[in-house]
Amino acid sequence: MIQNAVNVVVSYRKRIGIAILSILGFIVVYLLATGEPEPHYRNPATTVDAFAVRKNNGRIQVLLIRRGIEPSKNLLATPGGFVEYGEDPEDTVLREIQEETSMSVSKPVHLVTVNGAPNRDPRKHTISIIYALKLTDTNIMEMKAKDDAMELGFYDFDEILSGKIPLAFDHLRGLRRCKQWFDEKGEKLLL
User: Fold this and answer.
1) Closest CA to 93 of 109, 70, 113, 72
2) CA pair distance 92, 133, nearest whole angstrom
3) What is the pLDDT of residues 9-60, one digit of tens each?
4) Is 184 a catalytic residue?
5) Considering just the CA atoms, what is the radius of gyration of the chain in Å?
6) How far is C-alpha 85 from the geometric centre of its chain's CA atoms?
7) Counting Cβ atoms within 10 Å, is residue 101 exposed (0-12), middle (13-18) or buried (19+)?
8) Do the Cβ atoms of 152 and 63 come closer than 8 Å?
9) Cystine design at 79: which of 50, 61, 91, 127 (Cβ 3.0–4.6 Å)?
10) Which of the 8 DSSP states describes residue 160?
11) Separation CA 80–CA 54 (nearest Å)
12) Do residues 92 and 48 touch, judged by C-beta distance below 8 A?
């Protein structure tokens, strides 16, 4: 009886050993066939922001939304958001402007600048690509806040650049870069 018990334990031990060796063998063959697994990189997320302006009574006004969600809830921001996997950033900025403002804006979009300070967004490290968009009167008539925008409107560009009105994230820095681009070549493209 004891001998039978010993034989059963030895038999199971051999089977378990063979199963473990089979699994390890499969893993080795898989790694040899597919190459070494890629190391894990901590990459920043990519976002876009839309820079859109109009001229009203001789003054330049910039389109801003009031954020309806955290972070930076209730603060003004340029319309924008995260680039989805497999999405071109130029398509992202058009999608985001449509989602947040109801406006259907088409290409071309103009690359203005890139902001990527590691602490620009409290959620995680993001790199934001800022594109300038040309709005038409039809676009402006379509405007309606949607998605994570509580409200939207045009604000005096110089007043925004003065820093007296708090903006979300590092959008003041981005808008100051937009102002330089606008003065150099953007006015001809956007107005």
Assistant:
1) 109
2) 12
3) 445 555 555 655 466 555 555 555 566 666 788 899 999 999 999 999 999 9
4) no
5) 27
6) 10
7) buried
8) yes
9) 50
10) H
11) 18
12) yes
